[in-house]
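Lecture 7 notes: from sequence to structure.
We start with the chain below.
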Amino acid sequence: MLRRFLRAILVGPEAPQIRRFFLVGALAAGLQTALLGTLVEWVNVQYLIAATLSIEATIIFQYGVNNRWTFYDSRHDGWREYGRGLLRTNLVRGSAIPIQVGVLYALVSAATVPYLAANGVGIVISGVYRYVLDSRWTWQG
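Predicted structure tokens for the same chain:
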């Protein structure tokens, strides 16, 4: 399965779309990590709460960019269509929050990995899940 997915990134018909999705994700991961660090270090928010808030804050950003660039062939244009897509991506990404926060908690608690590094691992793991659901459900096309 992983081998097939990696091959699809390089040469499959969805390769450009997968690469754009992960590029948007990488940018959002940087924003999310910066927000997480800011909330924990400067505002003294507990790291799991800060992670949840920073994840939610990047959902709208990612939807807008993915809608206009990654999934431009099936993008949502009208208010109703855009709103429905935003709701769907929130459900997809909201369902990925426990995956990401769970990985974060496990790595920080059990493996004593620094929370920002652990968050990066959680982003990568939940990113595959988010792509599959977003590409198949949010932007069905």
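Points to note: The mean pLDDT is 89. Residues 79-110 form the longest helix (32 residues).
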